[in-house]
Amino acid sequence: MTEPKEPILRIENICKMLGGKEILKSVSLSLHKGELKVLIGPSGAGKSTLLQCINFLIPPDKGRVWLEGNEIRSRRKRDLYAFRQQVGMIFQDFNLFDHLNALENVAVALRKVKKMNRQAARNRAVAELERVGLADKIGLYPAELSGGQKQRVSIARALAMDPKIMLLDEPTSALDPELIGEVLTVIRDLVRRGMTMVLATHQIGFTRTLADEVLFMENGRIIEQGSPEVLLSPNACTRSRDFCSRLNELFAENE
Amino acid sequence: MLNTFSAIFEALPYLLNGALVTSGIVIGAMGIGLVLGVHMAVGQVYGNRAVRWLVGLYVWFFRGVPVLVLLFLFYFGLFTLVGLNLSAFAASTLVLGMTTAAYQSQIFRGAILSLPKGQLQAARALGMSDIKAIISIILPQALRFSIPGWSNEYSIILKDSALAFVLGTSEIMARSHFVASRTYQYLPLYITAGCLYFALTWIGVRALLKLEAKVRIPGYSH
Asked: Does B219 reside within a domain?
């Protein structure tokens, strides 16, 4: 008998009201080391808000967050900044720093947050950019990169901080269809290397093959959760299955 | 005709020295305005309610009162009241500096607000404190976008600096007025004064255009 291991990330009863509307209604989840949990669900379900509440970019109204068993006291700035360093975040629209080139985008937090010296930060940034296949683009600015390249820089930027978990907020939704592949390849590589992640996405095929667990969100709640085999199998009568097949139909029509 | 030319010619070194004084006032005032204005803009965008209110009050006061009134108010009243014994030059520079700070703060504030929200979010997500994010991420971008507005403010302050004349600062306007009333060549001397202001405006605006091109972010159009 192995002891059930402590989850690396645990959130409990996260609630958030925005503009008088309940966006998150008591959401809880836990994440074990090396797990990939995928959030799916219609737009407006609260996926983005949930991810941003986890690292307090949006302060939740209620709820608690633990990293490796330690509760995050988000009121204490020092704790909050230390926590955020360990949680990599990937945004739908990349949010690269527009005035810095690819190399500086990755290096800036190493210098300013991790206090690495210029040379060490540079070396690390180059290594991370090489890993996402951008060795030849390190001197280019965000405005000179394609969407797929920008998203890969932002992944390199997050990875350079050695995060314990990563939160990915629809990383391919703002990309042209032909650029989605290069970003998914990088994310797939992360899964292989055992990165612990929560991914919000509409890429159902990707979810089916890689997710350890699928969380289906609607109206601020996780209404279904389970392995992709169970939740998304062709003869499952689940809300998730329904949603995904409609997404697939749409996708087929577009082709 | 000959008198006109010789009056201008003889007065020119004296007036050019005045142009140096004017430049001193303007550079000093723009510098004070830059330092104060950036802090005020950051305070107004990211500060708590008290800070926002204070900055708002400051801006409201300095934008609402004519520069001439401000010069008199500070030079003949408020500076002495707080025990500051300033030369006319220093007082003019300081008052113009405080005035342009109010306007500059709004230039910077607008630039900060024009940045995508994601810039600060991404910086926070990496574990940066807000101060670090503002210094390393927000201001480098906001200041770039402020250069056109700042250039405009420069040309305004340059011309407002002529008001320093009333405190007895020996700048372009004071000197041309002095020579004119000695030689009775009013029109030629005031035309010369105008030309000097024109030249200083042109030089400054050109320099700022150069700066803007130099710090432009490659591939970026704002």
From this structure: no
> Residue B133 sits in a domain of what CATH number?
1.10.3720.10
Give chain B's domain count.
1
- Residues B114-167 have pLDDT tens digits of 999 999 999 999 999 999 999 999 999 999 999 999 999 999 999 999 999 999
Sequence letter at residue B111: A
3-state secondary structure of A71: strand
Reported as half-sphere exposure (CB side, CA atoms, 13 A), residue A162 has a value of 6
Domain that holds residue B20: 2-214
For the domain that residue A43 is a member of, what is the CATH number? 3.40.50.300
Out of A84, A96, A140, name the one closest to residue B125 (CB): A84
Residue A18 φ then ψ, to 5°: -130, 125
Is A202 an 8 Å CB contact of chain B? Answer: no
In this prediction the pTM is: 0.90
ipTM (interface predicted TM) = 0.92
Judging contacts by C-beta atoms under 8 Å, the chain B residues touching residue A82 are: 127
Q: Report the alpha-carbon distance of residue A7 to residue B37 in Å, rounded.
A: 48
**How many domains in chain A?**
1
